[in-house]
């Protein structure tokens, strides 16, 4: 063989082995191949991930998930910081990432009291605007965002966290100014802006009987008013001992009984001492060393308990797969999780499906093995 031929031979060999390696990788089962016939398997992305910069996380996302949701970049304070200014840069990038990877893209969230741009509900003097002005602002906000991504976003969290655990309405500015009607208005504006998008009500602590009662009523009322609500999102920010799994299941069944789908939209499980039982982002507690017991690694005994409880949740989701349309983890790896800073800033938590080195947790490995064994 002359030098040119040898070079060609090596090149072909290299290309062949690259292909072979690639094939092997894509054939390795991911979570979506294990669970994809049951429900969408989603994950929340931060902007390092949706921009492609965090390549290690992107590899995990591509292999394991078939749906993404925006962790922060579609929230009002980012996407609509001033009344006359929208900033779509990060949201555009996020939607493009989902499309390029063939994923179901979920928009989070249209109307929420947290991470709300400061101008939204008040006038220049800081006083609440009138009901008419707030309606107009909500309509502009929802119409502009939802129509921009019409046909590209599978579903929207239309209203987030409007109801308290006791079943009363949260005293947000939206509620102060418009009463309960802000919720139906939001659904109406969203459905007008994209008649094909799925529309969701999303909240935390959805297992509590009070919240369950009001959410069920809300779904029934929206439907009776001729509005579309496709699913109820149970966020699923849980701890190892809270909530009670039976209560969680009872809520899941109660929501499904209304005829809508149920989604687990922000699943994570803190492995740390629980200092409160809320996921309201402003309910924080000061750091103390005692609240951060595992800064280096999770002891095996705690890890075992954590994995067993995650398995119990996953089994529950699988048991109710006929009514669950999506299960989404709130972040890719432990290092990304908001739980490191909530409700106590600066802790080291272990809340997600992949560890800080992007390795699957034992319960995830077990799930993946089930699939390999089935082949
Ligand atoms: C969290 C994000 O994960 C954090 O990065 C951010 O600082 C605060 O919000 N319920 C929700 C999510 O609906 O939007 C919140 O996300 C977590 C609680």
The largest β sheet comes out as: 8 strands, parallel, barrel
Low-confidence stretches: 1-26
The gross shape turns out to be: globular
The tally of beta strands, per DSSP, is 9
Helix/strand class = alpha/beta
Which sequence of SSEs, written as H and E, runs from N to C?
Answer: HHEHHEHHEHEHHEHEEHEHEH
Secondary structure tally, helices: 13
Radius of gyration: 22 Å
Can you describe this structure?
The protein has 375 residues and is an alpha/beta fold. It contains 13 helices and nine strands. An eight-stranded parallel beta barrel has the order 1-2-3-4-5-6-8-9, surrounded by five helices. The chain starts with a helix and ends with a helix. The structure holds (3S,4R)-3-hydroxy-2-oxopiperidin-4-yl beta-D-xylopyranoside. (3S,4R)-3-hydroxy-2-oxopiperidin-4-yl beta-D-xylopyranoside binds next to loops.
State the main characteristics:
single chain; 375 residues; alpha/beta; 13 helices; disordered N terminus; binds (3S,4R)-3-hydroxy-2-oxopiperidin-4-yl beta-D-xylopyranoside
Task: Note the topology.
Elements lengths: L2 H25 L3 H5 L4 E6 L1 H4 L4 H10 L2 E4 L5 H4 L9 H12 L3 E8 L19 H18 L6 E6 L12 H6 L2 H13 L4 E6 L5 H16 L6 E4 L2 E3 L5 H13 L3 E10 L29 H20 L4 E6 L32 H13 L1
Parallel strand pairs: 1-2, 1-9, 2-3, 3-4, 4-5, 5-6, 6-8, 7-8, 8-9
Helix pairs in contact: 7-9, 10-11
């Amino acid at each position: 063989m002359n030098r040119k031929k040898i070079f060609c031979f090596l090149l072909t060999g290299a290309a062949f082995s690259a292909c072979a390696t690639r094939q092997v990788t894509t054939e390795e089962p991911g979570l979506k191949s294990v669970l994809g016939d049951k429900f969408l398997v989603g994950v929340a992305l931060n902007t390092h991930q949706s921009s492609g910069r965090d390549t290690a996380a992107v590899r995990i996302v591509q292999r394991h998930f078939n749906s993404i949701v925006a962790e922060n970049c579609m929230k009002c304070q980012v996407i609509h910081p001033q009344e006359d200014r929208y900033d779509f840069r990060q949201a555009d990038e996020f939607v493009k990432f989902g499309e390029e990877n063939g994923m179901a893209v979920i928009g989070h969230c249209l109307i929420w009291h947290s991470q709300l741009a400061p101008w939204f509900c008040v006038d220049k003097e800081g006083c609440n605007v009138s009901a008419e002005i707030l309606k107009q602002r909500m309509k502009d906000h929802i119409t502009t965002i939802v129509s921009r991504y019409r046909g590209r976003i599978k579903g929207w969290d239309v209203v987030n966290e409007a109801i308290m655990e006791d079943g009363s309405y949260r005293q947000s500015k939206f509620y102060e100014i418009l009463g309960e009607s802000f919720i139906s208005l939001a659904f109406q504006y969203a459905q007008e802006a994209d008649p094909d998008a799925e529309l969701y009500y999303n909240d935390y602590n959805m297992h509590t009987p009070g919240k369950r009662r009001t959410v069920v009523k809300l779904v029934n009322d929206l439907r009776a008013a001729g509005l579309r609500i496709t699913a109820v999102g149970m966020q699923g920010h849980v701890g190892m001992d809270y909530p009670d799994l039976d209560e969680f299941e009872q809520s899941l069944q109660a929501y499904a009984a209304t005829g809508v789908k149920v989604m687990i939209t922000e699943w994570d499980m803190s492995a740390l001492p629980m200092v409160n039982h809320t996921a309201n982002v402003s309910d924080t507690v000061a750091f103390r060393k005692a609240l951060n017991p595992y800064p280096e690694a999770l002891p095996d005994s705690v890890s075992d308990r954590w994995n067993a409880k995650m398995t119990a949740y996953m089994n529950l989701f699988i048991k109710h797969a006929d009514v669950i349309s999506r299960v989404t983890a709130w972040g890719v790896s432990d290092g990304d999780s908001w739980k490191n800073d909530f409700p106590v800033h600066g802790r080291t938590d272990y809340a997600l499906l992949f560890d800080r080195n992007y390795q699957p947790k034992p319960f995830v490995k077990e799930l993946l093995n089930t699939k390999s064994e089935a082949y």
